[in-house]
Amino acid sequence: MNVLHIAYATDWHHAQHTGEYRISTRGRTLEQEGFIHLSTDRRQAQAVTDRFYADVTEPLLLLEIDPTGLDIRYETPPGSDETFPHLYGPLPTSSVTAVHEHNTL
């Protein structure tokens, strides 16, 4: 089953040139955070969008990711009762199976 990641359109377009995506979450890189934040499904992605990206005016994308061969760990953040997938390492652009505009979340 695919996992999802919310991305700024500019970050995703930059990754197309390098072959890998290295943004963890809004304003934080993989190196700063230690992993890339993911969502298990569209409901979870929408909740994250509503909570952390509500004021964003820059175009957002929803990346669908094939987890095969990726170091994805399901973890529950402190203070949460919900489990989220985290990708430990960069996301190869070849693992992204579909890209949707934010308004199609």
From TrEMBL:
<dbReference type="InterPro" id="IPR009297">
    <property type="entry name" value="DUF952"/>
</dbReference>
<dbReference type="Pfam" id="PF06108">
    <property type="entry name" value="DUF952"/>
</dbReference>
<protein>
    <submittedName>
        <fullName>DUF952 domain-containing protein</fullName>
    </submittedName>
</protein>
